[in-house]
Design a protein that fits this description.
Elements lengths: L27 E6 L2 E6 L12 E5 L1 E3 L3 E6 L4 E11 L2 E7 L8 E4 L4 E10 L2 E7 L4 H8 L27 E4 L11 H9 L3 E7 L22 E5 L1 H12 L4 E4 L1 H9 L10 E5 L15 E5 L6 H10 L1 H13 L10 E5 L1
Parallel strand pairs: 1-17, 3-12, 3-14, 4-11, 14-16
Antiparallel strand pairs: 1-2, 5-6, 5-8, 6-7, 7-10, 8-9, 9-10, 12-13, 13-15, 16-17
Length: about 350
């Protein structure tokens, strides 16, 4: 058995959430305290917070980076613009048949064209863009929000704001930081009034966090760089909270990664802005480990699953996942949440 295979599990298809709930905070919440499991609803998360705690959220906003295209030969392709390499050259995730260098693709009925320069890794290509307008302007005005491909039941009237957190602010992600989707403005207000500090970091979700790992050993996984930023005010607030003995609660694997990317060897959070290719998987030794961790239920063999396993332990996490399946929890982006604390 490969080292990666231990992170596999069987999930019946009916457990994959296909649509968001009407009220975000009525999703279910599995609470893991030590070895004890409790089943609640998400709006009850407020009762897990104490005065003086700090709740850290990722304020990244999903960009409309998805387009449809047609090859010169007539084949249909789907494109997801990932990252600008230089003006008019982007890395794109392209789904289609017989993709190779020099293939030209008309995007959205000729709105603009791209040409494949070379393949970077499976499904990802360096492309040349032919357009009079900046691609970022085209993304903003004509692109679509990239909903995960395992969600197959959305209709044309779907409100794409449901795939943004209510506090999304800084544009740049190609997928939502899904643990934050459960919060409403009202719930955050109540948490704040309880005396809990709420702070925001930024980490733009990239392709490295949304694709399944394709190597046998996780240590060989080539994590893509992702932009992150933690401002000085936020870093100081986090460090002060820990110094006085209050708890730090991280919401989502992206927040976990941002914190660890900004931590120093003394276990302090520094004010930082840059790119991180950090991949946290079991065996990783945290320099800055939050006291609590809120996360969704993730795909088998996916980077977020391995990050959650690094936090709580692989066997314990997969045992909890089995309990969640037996109790009909909803999985993945529009699914339910779990809160891990001691």
């Amino acid at each position: 058995m490969s080292k990666l295979e231990q992170f596999n599990f069987i999930l019946p298809e009916q457990h994959i959430a296909q649509t968001p709930l009407e009220k975000r905070d009525t999703s279910r919440l599995l609470i893991l305290k030590g070895n004890k499991i409790q089943h609640k609803l998400f709006y009850e998360f407020i009762h897990e917070m104490n005065k003086g705690d700090i709740l850290i959220l990722n304020d990244s906003k999903v960009i409309s980076a998805r387009f449809n295209g047609i090859k010169e030969t007539g084949g249909i392709v789907n494109l997801l613009f990932l990252k600008e390499i230089e003006p008019l050259k982007w890395h794109c995730l392209i789904k289609g048949k017989r993709l190779r260098p020099k293939i030209k693709i008309k995007v959205e009925n000729g709105l603009f064209e791209i040409e494949i320069i070379k393949q970077i890794r499976e499904g990802i290509f360096l492309t040349q863009i032919f357009s009079k307008d900046p691609i970022k302007k085209l993304i903003k005005n004509f692109g679509k929000i990239p909903i995960p491909n395992y969600i197959k039941q959305l209709d044309e009237e779907f409100n794409y704001d449901k795939y943004q957190t209510v506090f999304a602010k800084t544009e740049g992600s190609i997928a939502a930081p899904t643990a934050g989707l459960h919060f409403t403005k009202n719930l955050l207000s109540k948490i704040s009034k309880k005396g809990v500090k709420i702070e925001y970091v930024t980490l733009h979700v990239g392709v490295g966090l949304i694709l399944k790992i394709h190597v046998d050993d996780p240590k060989d996984y080539p994590m893509e760089q992702e932009f992150f930023e933690i401002k000085k005010k936020v870093a100081d607030s986090i460090n002060n909270t820990r110094e006085v003995g209050n708890r730090i609660i991280a919401v989502g694997t992206t927040t976990l990664k941002a914190l660890e990317s900004a931590s120093n060897k003394n276990g302090k959070i520094e004010s930082k802005r840059g790119l991180s290719d950090l991949f946290i998987y079991p065996g990783y030794k945290f320099r800055f480990k939050p006291d609590g961790f809120l996360t969704n239920f993730h795909l088998p063999k996916s980077p977020p699953l391995l990050m959650a396993a690094a936090y709580v332990g692989t066997r314990k996490l997969l045992n909890v996942y089995q309990v969640a399946i037996e109790n009909n929890y909803r999985f993945y982006s529009f699914g339910d949440a779990m809160f891990i604390t001691s």
